[in-house]
# Entry
Amino acid sequence: MNFQDYEAIDFACDESFQRYCREEHEADIAFWAEWARQHPGKTAVLEEARQLVALLSARQGGRMEQLKHLRDGLTQYERLQHALEGNLPALPEEPTPVNRYHYIRYAAAVIGGAVILAAGGYFFSRQQHAARVSSEVAAATVISAGDEPRKSVILPDGSALVLRKNSRVELAEGFNRVNRDLTLTGEAFFDVVKDVHRPFMVHTSAFDIKVLGTVFNVSAYTGHPLMEASLFRGSVEITCAQGPAQKIVLQPNQKLTIAGTATGKTTAAPVLKVVPLDADPINHKAREIAWVRNRLEIENEPLADIAGKLEKWYGIRIAFADDAVKQYRYSGTFESETVLKALDALQLSYPFNFKMVNDTIIISK
# Structure
């Protein structure tokens, strides 16, 4: 079998690859980890395939139906395309890789009550959160995690923020109106909503980060000799606050480290390095955000129980406006770095609505 010809959807449909993504079988994990190491040119395709597996893993009912739903959905899409083109005869038994990829990227089909969703669906729905939480900060506002392991915050512009223990951010006056500036002390994970007219700015004691819309992690503890900015999606421009002024643009899967920033007792200039992210050799996930990533394994569990797990991990309150929604049941295994991403993955398999009200996520029909 020539896996080099596979597109993302082909990998996602492969049961061995699915077991590898879910870390369910040592032989599959070892095989795909070694295959990925030997084929670095397929890194982006494999990452997209892992995201597809994660998105398609959370759905109502048992796990055994997931692959069938996906394949049925692909076939239905092909039939629809042939019907629209007046080419109902000669329908291929299996969709071509190009059409399968086109389907997964741009289409959503409802087959037997199960939703087969576009890979871009999560990113589309993330853009809608800005409207759900739209507001502005009239005066500077401080948000602190305190002694909690993690504290999740949905900012007024719709961006998601997860603070690590003993970390804090201060939102600038006029946040989401005249600016999107904040100051970070400690460590935080950001999933920023894109706004080309208002860049998102993160200020620390060692550097400033300018973004339009991206996913990144910043570790900037006061008094610590090493500070880091790690990029996972998009691009960021970093301006160092110490030493000669210089700007560094990071690409995905890179991080900037700044050593010698602790107390200013030395006159030596801080040492700056741009290095690859520290990926785990088994599951290829970046160690830099192991603290925020949550792996959910659920088997026919009600949404009320799942919400309890999300509350505990992400440090945010979740409430229900309708009791019926609590009984929606889901099965699957998926990972997420923010509570919004986790809820979006669930929402796509069996829909519900949610919005932010103050510091609480409200789930309704």
Residues 59-64, 87-134 have pLDDT under 50 and may be disordered. The CA atoms of residues 16 and 28 lie 6 Å apart. The chain has ten helices and 20 strands. The two ends are 45 Å apart (CA to CA).
